Amino acid sequence: xxxxxxxxxxxxxxxxxxxxxxxxxxxxxxxxxxxxxxxxxxxxxxxxxxxxxxxxxxxxxxxxxxxxxxxxxxxxxxxxxxxxxxxxxxxxxxxxxxxxxxxxxxxxxxxxxxxxxxxxxxxxxxxxxxxxxxxxxxxxxxxxxxxxxxxxxxxxxxxxxxxxxxxxxxxxxxxxxxxxxxxxxxxxxxxxxxxxxxxxxxxxxxxxxxxxxxxxxxxxxxxxxxxxxxxxxxxxxxxxxxxxxxxxxxxxxxxxxxxxxxxxxxxxxxxxxxxxxxxxxxxxxxxxxxxxxxxxxxxxxxxxxxxxxxxxxxxxxxxxxxxxxxxxxxxxxxxxxxxxxxxxxxxxxxxxxxxxxxxxxxx
Length: 363
Description:
- Helices cover 42% and strands 15% of the residues.
- By secondary structure, the chain is an alpha+beta fold.
- It has a 6-stranded mixed β-sheet with strand order 1-5-6-4-3-2. A 3-stranded antiparallel β-sheet has the order 7-9-10, covered by helices on one side.
- The chain starts with a strand and ends in a 6-residue tail after the last helix.
């Protein structure tokens, strides 16, 4: 993987990803030069843009011999450059993931062939493996029990290898929440809740509204909870960010802009609370958590019981309303029927999980 090649700088325009630019970016592949590139837009692009690049190499035989990619996905910044500083940390996180962290854990994620970013983190380019014919999950539909097991096995591959790894605290851009930050984000969340309730009132039950309202008083304390069992967390581990291979033989995880440090239950609780039908969760919760726990143990996690894992999962379900409400209220994309269905599924499932599991009792 190469970073910050002067001849292949960051750009926000797919037109700049010329054969010459790609030849420079992929120079370490030793496949010669790219003769032609054909881009096609992919994804929804709420915080950025993604393009599938079909490559034609000047020397196809040489390219094939060294395993050069024939198709890549280019991920770049998007939206108004003047307001991009608001999401620059997300761009930095994704760059950090692919350049420093992905090869230190065991979760499936696309190979990164090239990465570059500006000093202010507002413009970047990642060249990633094209995972086609794998398909993303559908949030409103939810995952099956088999897909949930597969996802949990992979999630353990993120959490386990860096479990309580204090060297993570030395990486610029990674930090545990402090009291000041928790107070600020708790206030932001409390301010967003009434807006969310008003916008989604047609789809929320009275119980859901009551649950959302109650979470406002818990969030600040929750944001600094369980820091003694910190690890790398994805932060938004759900079907839309998972690519399932045909036949669900494997799954890969995308979109690392919410990368951070925290207790693993923030991912496990969020995933089950938002990503599977509520009745399926209730029927298979213990079985699915056991799959995750067993995989954690296989990754070398010690001195951590299943009861502790289950407790972290219970507490972690509060990640559901946090990400759902802030995502819905502060999303830059225009709301659509599909996005409304997505957020509705996430919040109603999360609220049901909170009422079932009572995470507030653990604070």
